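Subject: two folds for Thursday's group meeting

Dear M.,

Sorry for the delay on this. The cluster queue was jammed most of the week, so I only got both jobs back this morning. I'm pasting them in the order they finished. Each block is the input sequence followed by the predicted structure tokens. Could you check whether the formatting survives your parser before we put anything on slides? The first protein is the one we discussed after the seminar.
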Amino acid sequence: MTELYELSIEAVKTRFLARSLKPSDYLDALLARLAAYDDAIHSMVAIDAARAKAAAIEADAAYAAGAPRGPLDGIPVAIKDVIDVAGLPTTCYSRLLLDNIAAGDAAAVAALRRAGAIILGKSATHEFAIGGPAFDLPFPPARNPWNIAHHPGGSSSGSGAGAAAGLFPGAIGTDTGGSVRHPASACGIVGLKPTYDAISRSGVFPLAFSLDHVGSLARTVADAALLCDVMAEGRAAATHQIGQPIRGVKVGYVKHFHTADMIADAEVADALDAAATRLVDLGAEVREITLPSLLAFAAVNRIILQSEAVAVHGKWLRETPEAYCRLSRRGILPGIFLSAEDLIQAQRQRRQLIEAVESAFRDVDVLLTASSMETACRIDDEAEIARTYGRQARTPFNVTGHPAIALRSGMSNAGLPLSLQIAGRYHDEALICRVAATIELPSSIPSLQFAAR
């Protein structure tokens, strides 16, 4: 028998509508699972149980009356702790903001509430959505539910880890250099970053103004797309083509990202080739294409991110640098030494990179690329984390602002998820989700026995 925590959002909604499951009972089951396992995973920094239970009772009444209030009525959703939820602290996982109580909901959270979603609480992140899994912060870092000795990706770490573990069915994160798609890749779920500005960033603590995106994490493409559509409020239509065939869709396979620019592990590369073969079998036209070097995208992202981050953090860094964790200081401080010339030249190159990707989309409909170049390493191996965190192909689509989705492509021999990424034209979330849905693997939740530490 399928356990409640294994159900997709769509399956839960079906049970709500059939009156075979009440939202309050579903919430109670998830709260019990959180109580049982989150002391080991650390996916949540704050659970707003009282307000969540009150919202679930309201949803019970709406379904009993045959009038659900929206497409997410009764569905619990976790919110990354850089995004405001009224009445809860937005700590950004930092000692600098422990008492920063949000006066109102972020625009994305307000949209979720209007759709009936139950706001479960705040999920773990890296400090100010930069750095990495740090042990010198007020809160412990989230861990990978497939093996808690390993990291879960970041910076939307708790959103990815908790959704993968079945602690909640969906979550919200932010993505500046891949921070929704990275935990999705590391934890074997789906992470959708829509087109830049498709989802309002009002009420989101910024990392880099021109790179930040709000995105969704869930265990299926359809669920991630639904969350995105609700938050975008008409500026995305990610769900609209799911289930349609992909015959004739032109796929550009950017193979050099993982075979030349950064050499991926063999298991990652083999899974990507297998996905390309499945796309062909389903009727898509797949051919290799060439984009600028992955290293060029990474360099531009780094200069813009660090420059814009200093605009946010410069005063605090100069006055109280010791208040930041070591990884955050290492991530942001170099921006102080960048010049206006550095930023202008990076923005000029950014325009060239955008034009190159736009040119590719004149010949193909979507791009198939790697996401991470290897599986998640141990969380306590700082040198390996530093080596591997930048070995990814997600950053290009923060630089360009195109929509992109990461999903599981298989499992490694070590029992950790492998991943791939599909990107598309501006505001064509529908097509990338349609393609992703045709090749997504069945949702799988780890056993959570935590034997390997």
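Second protein, same layout:
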Amino acid sequence: MRIRSKALSSTDPAPSLYVAREPIFPKRVSGKFRTLKWYIMGITLGIYYLLPWIRWDRGADLPDQAVLLDLAGRRFYFFWIQIWPHEFYFVAGLLIMAGLGLFLFTSALGRVWCGYACPQTVWTDLFILVERWVEGDRNARLRLHRQKKWDLRKARLNLTKWFLWLLIGLATGGAWVFYFADAPTLARDLVTFSAHPAAYSTIAILTATTFVFGGFAREQICNYACPWPRIQAAMMDPDTLVVGYRKWRGEPRKHSELAKTEPQGDCIDCMACVNVCPAGIDIRDGQQLECITCALCIDACDNIMDKIGKPRGLIDYMALTDEEAERNGAAPRSVIKHVLRPRVLMYSGMWAAVGFALVFALFIRSDVELTVAPVRSPTFITLSDGSIRNTYDVRLRNKDLHPQTFRISVKGHPKFRVQIEGTPYESVDVPADTTVLKRVYIIAPNGSDPVAARSTDVRIWVEALGGGERAYKDTSFTGKGDGS
């Protein structure tokens, strides 16, 4: 057969590369996976909205918010843990753990993160819940959407839905800014219109994006904006458990026009799996980029199988390696055997190693730190008695939640002595959770070896008199060198 193609003339409009989005109206479904999604949605939203309001006593003059990103004070507070700017490697380690966690879960269970815990999925679920509560289940929402004429009822339902979406978006943006300032204080300032403009602009942007992403874009964000669907293929292999359709059991589908004598599969083509899918795909067509592995199609199909008296699992979590065995009547391998395989164990080991390293670094870090910067203009000063004095800027950091007294000492030559500018003592008081800059002098008496030497190695020690913790920095002492 010859296929003829029609050439486009210069007057013909250019074909569109995109199709208009057809809104998806998922049907309500019940089952173990839907229940799991409800629990995860409740926990994640509860943590996000309530965490800034939890209090944690750190002592006087310190913030009592359990989780706080204090940008002005350059601190990150997480319950009893405090991260300083120079300890950003902890944040980097957490990001590495998050990435490895994604690799781990994807290699074991496909896009399970996307289906259950991704913020886009969680907020979309919440928006669909509101939509269903206002407009009804799938059929009612479809009828309302296809109704061309905007009457009073359609306007009322849509305005009510949009208003509730806007409130959710406002709460989302408001909760975000509470992580960067004291939540009760900022809430009062926001209500009285005395907060910083950055707070209002941040809330406005997050409100708008939440409203649009959760209410209108939905699966489009996953399909076009998120890179993870395209990356996940590298994390998966034939042993990865993904949501799939047992075609060898379901086909041919049962249709009324089929003769009773013809062989029929368990699938009755009821479209229940399609109607509940938030991505609007048909899982019976095989694995697709749009599938987020939420498993709602499993719940829908299992409910239908129960009604027609067929065994569950026509749509289920399965691996490609089990297909041939199941076609021949053998039982699939257990979930444990699929999960405990070299790739998953490798990701688990890497994830655990990074986590252990972070915890180890957290527990061995000292509450006493110092930095030393020699002042080399001039390099040294000759005192009236012939002694040589070097000057150093010493920055003392007290990371403890209580005030500390730091004693400064020096090692390198027995005749070295230390003097702190502004005090006759060799100790200095440093408030809790504070850094103090002090000018420290190291003096070598006339006739000593450091005076005649060009350079002498010096180690400056700092000891917390209350807790006994110590820290040091190595530097050098500059003498006359040429003997002049």
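Two things I noticed about the second structure. Residues 1-6 have pLDDT under 50 and may be disordered. The two ends are 105 Å apart (CA to CA).

Cheers,
T.
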